[in-house]
Amino acid sequence: MIWEAIIDFVFPKVCVGCGIGGSFLCKECKNRLDFVDQICPMCGEGSLMGWTHSRCKDRYGMDGLIAIYEYQEPIARAVVDGIKYGFNRELISIALKDFRFETGECFDFLIPVPLYFYRENWRGFNQARELGEVVGSKLLVPVENILERKRNTKQQVMMKTREERENNISGAFVVGNEWKGKLRKKKLLLVDDVFTSGADMRECSKMLKKAGAEVVWGLALAH
Ligand SMILES: [Zn+2]
Ligand SMILES: [Zn+2]
Predict the structure, then answer these.
(1) Could you give the number of structural domains in the chain?
(2) Are 108 and 139 in contact (CB under 8 A)?
């Protein structure tokens, strides 16, 4: 492919972890990456398999979260940032390789958490959507852009308390018109690159469950 050859020339394959040439993540850095311990998406405390604690269950809340890496870990952060700014699918596949998870659910749709349009980069790359495509083809679950972002929000890092973050995000997502009335009893998997405070995913879950969804899980590359 001539186009790929040009891309390789302009953006040579170098490891995001150590800078060595040849691949986007060298074997050594990949081996140093550990899969992260799972947490409950509602309270952020540890939870076996990422299931929401029974004490944290909430009518519109998430039912569980699958996270792959620890965002604080330097190589994991380089991978997540490499995907966000480096617009390559190959790195996504490498990052997801060997990761297995079991939620006990059979999902109907996989939904990328939408970005506000100007946060997408110059190629219109949305890392949540790209990640969704790769995960969707692995799980054989169709990827659908069921949610739309209605307005932008302040950067969540500026928000100090959980309450501030939830207020900031409240009303930011809506179920697209063509999906209204079609989500009853559906089992959905939200996908995003990073689960930090989790306010975005919890708000998405709320909108989907209000629209009739029965189960909402999240999958994030890192937390
Ligand atoms: Zn490396
Ligand atoms: Zn909990």
Answers:
(1) 1
(2) no
